[in-house]
Amino acid sequence: xxxxxxxxxxxxxxxxxxxxxxxxxxxxxxxxxxxxxxxxxxxxxxxxxxxxxxxxxxxxxxxxxxxxxxxxxxxxxxxxxxxxxxxxxxxxxxxxxxxxxxxxxxxxxxxxxxxxxxx
Length: 119
Description:
Layout: H1 3-20, H2 23-42, E1 48-54, E2 57-62, H3 69-77, E3 82-84, E4 88-91, H4 99-114
Antiparallel strand pairs: 1-2, 2-4, 3-4
Helix pairs in contact: 2-4, 3-4
């Protein structure tokens, strides 16, 4: 059997599992929960310009360059983020996250943004 046939089978299996587990529906539900939670926690923060998202892809635009938050997020808060355009925190959680995990992301990211001057 060729590699391309095997890869095709793997791809079909992934799609079957995503459909079975309703991963796209969960992404929409948890994405709304994440966006609402972050807006509730950080929406009035003076250094937060905007919080926006689509599904589970969320951006938090800050009024200052925030590249240094990437390392702090990982070491202090055990969360993986990246920064785009020097001042936008981008969150890309997995499609399979549940309500508890989504709430934990909100708590950790909110703490990270609120305590930026701690170090």
